[in-house]
Design goal:
The complex is a heterodimer of chains A (239) and B (292). Chain A has helices at residues 45-52, 75-78, 98-105, 109-112, 115-125, 127-131, 142-154, 172-187, 199-205, 223-228, 230-237, and strands at residues 7-16, 19-29, 34-38, 58-65, 68-69, 83-86, 160-164, 191-196, 208-213, 216-222. Chain A is of the alpha/beta class. Chain A starts with 6 loop residues before the first strand and ends with a helix. The radius of gyration of chain A is 17 Å and the shape is globular. The longest helix of chain A is centred in the last third of the chain and has 16 residues, at 172-187. Chain B has a single domain (7-119, 140-280), classed as ABC transporter involved in vitamin B12 uptake, BtuC (Orthogonal Bundle), CATH 1.10.3470. Chain B has ten helices and two strands, in the order H-H-H-H-E-E-H-H-H-H-H-H. Chain B has a two-stranded antiparallel sheet. Chain B is globular, with a radius of gyration of 19 Å. Classes of the chains: A alpha/beta (239), B mainly alpha (292). The interface between A and B is medium-sized, with 30 and 19 residues.
């Protein structure tokens, strides 16, 4: 463990305008790990991912990717460092075809060269996307859109994948298949940071988790430990 | 008698087709800017006027060969388009639409006034004659044929660019969700600047085609600016294919309507059709917004 972690947040604070949301958040994601951030609605989970992707500015603290400080990197350069995000609500381009959405994921010059190869990889992971490649993304079901959004993020060939509430708004059976995909991706060696309200499910597929409440990290540890923790079970699992 | 009637009718339809191609190109740049940036360049026709003066000045006053003068006009307008975005549109991008209309409206009068100061109010002619084409008893203007051909090539090129390249895909994507673009690695302000330069270059090409057919004077923008805007609205503002179709529909109304009555009546009929359409389908003939 001498190498720097893939992603390291130290004392990060962020918010919207003068409204602070995150306070002194520190967390780490090591290469090959899958990590979850769990917590109630409004805890700042989405804000955390938006801060990592620089969609909102930090008001304090530092972020480092593979040991290099990226606190001052512009939002559109973050993906070039190998950080891709599947945003909350999927945010596909509804009137572009599935394949054009995937093309946007490969917008960076380095990714364009590998477009064909990664397209095959995404189609292998989601055969449904291959069937629907010419369909307008906005006309697909929620689960299909989520697959397309994950595929779009993979098209950049990321080192670290940020997932924001991938199960939100999906039918239970579809949620199962999305978590199966996440489990498969971490088994294949992808490094994943996932934010979820579906605590029970997500703790079964990740290695470690952080508990975020009202903008602060309240607990962290291996997923199995948090799953067994009495306080977590009471608050989030209803048992 | 019947035979002659048919030939002239066919000529009117063909002239309408040629006019439609030119109008389609005119509306393309304006439509592209609106579709992508959500701003209407009210001064679009005045940019074309500046391009026409540039070409006229380079060719007749400076002796620059016509193809080079055309290139110069297109390049200048591409730069002007980018500058218009950077210095006029960008500061009001988040402002109310009425403010955006007012600033570009201000640019309209500024460009008219500057052209008057620089070139006076005289009508300037390029002095280039392209021989016409006579088919049977029909005669078609050579300048219109050239304009039609070049407009079609430009429209096809723009279409392929938007659909087959990464930057073109980004231009289509940014109008659907601007805020998510950074996650794709796209610098939105660069895409806007490039789109504005493309819009300017399309205005420059329109200037080339118009200056072959019409004299240039400071107020010439008024003779086709409103028409261009109406075509964009008719096709559904921001809908490039809708604008393309609307240009040909409008041109047929003008040309065939003018054939049956008088030329001026062609415009009257076209505008009545426009107003009726606005009652019947206010979102335009082919609306992209209906699906939102």
């Amino acid at each position: 463990m001498s190498a720097a972690p893939m992603l390291a947040l130290s004392c990060v604070s962020a918010g919207y305008g003068s409204f602070p949301v995150l306070f002194d958040v520190s967390l780490q994601v090591r290469a090959g790990e899958s990590v979850a951030v769990i917590g109630p609605n409004g805890a700042g989970k989405t804000t955390l991912l938006r801060a990592i992707s620089k969609l909102i500015p930090l008001t304090g603290g530092h972020i480092a990717m593979e040991g290099r400080d990226c606190t001052a990197v512009a939002a559109h350069d973050i993906i070039g460092l190998g950080i891709a995000q599947v945003p909350e609500g999927r945010r596909l381009f509804p009137r572009l075809s599935v394949e054009d959405n995937l093309r946007m994921g490969a917008y960076l010059p380095a990714a364009r060269a590998k477009f064909d190869q990664r397209l095959e990889m995404v189609y292998a992971l989601f055969p449904r996307m291959k069937e629907r490649r010419a369909q307008l993304a906005g006309t697909m079901s929620g689960g299909e859109q989520q697959m397309c959004a994950i595929g779009r993020a993979l098209m950049s060939g990321p080192k670290l994948l940020l997932l924001d509430e991938p199960s939100a708004g999906l039918a239970p059976v579809v949620v199962q298949s999305i978590f199966e995909v996440i489990r498969k991706m971490s088994a294949e060696g992808y490094t994943v940071l996932i934010v979820e309200q579906n605590v029970q499910q997500v703790l079964k597929v990740v290695d470690r988790a952080y508990l975020l409440e009202t903008g602060r990290i309240h607990a962290s540890g291996p997923a199995a430990e948090l799953l067994a923790d009495a306080a977590v079970r009471r608050a989030y699992l209803g048992v | 008698m019947d035979q002659i009637f048919d030939i002239f009718f066919l000529e009117a339809v063909l002239n309408g087709l040629l006019l439609g191609g030119l109008l389609a190109l005119l509306s393309l740049g304006l439509n592209l800017i609106f579709g992508v940036i959500d701003v209407v360049w009210i001064c679009y026709a005045e940019l074309i006027m500046v391009g026409m003066y540039t070409i006229w000045w380079l060719h007749t006053q400076q002796g620059v060969p016509l193809p080079l003068a055309f290139g110069g006009g297109i390049a200048l307008l591409a730069v002007l388009g980018a500058a218009l975005h950077q210095f006029v549109i960008r500061p009001v991008l988040a402002a109310e639409p009425i403010n955006q209309l007012l600033v570009t409206g201000g640019v309209l009068f500024l460009l008219q006034a500057l052209a008057t100061v620089a070139f006076g109010v005289e009508f300037r002619n390029l002095g280039v004659r392209i021989p016409g084409v006579v088919v049977g008893e029909m005669s078609l203007s050579g300048a219109r044929l050239v304009a039609f051909g070049m407009a079609m090539v430009a429209i096809a090129t723009t279409y392929l660019f938007l659909n087959r390249t990464y930057m073109g895909t980004a231009i289509r994507a940014i109008s659907q969700d601007r805020a998510v673009m950074p996650l794709m690695g796209v610098d939105a302000s660069r895409v806007y600047l490039l789109t504005s330069a493309i819009g300017g270059a399309l205005a420059g090409l329109a200037a080339c085609l118009l200056v072959l057919q019409y004299d240039v004077h400071p107020a010439i923008g008024l003779s086709f600016g409103p028409l261009t805007f109406l075509i964009c609205v008719l096709g559904g503002l921001g809908n490039l294919i809708g604008g393309f179709v609307a240009a040909f529909v409008f041109a047929q109304f003008i040309s065939v309507g003018g054939f049956f009555l008088q030329l001026e009546w062609g415009y009257v009929i076209a505008f009545v059709f426009f107003i009726a359409t606005m009652f019947w389908k206010p979102e335009g003939l082919l609306s992209k917004r209906a699906g939102r």
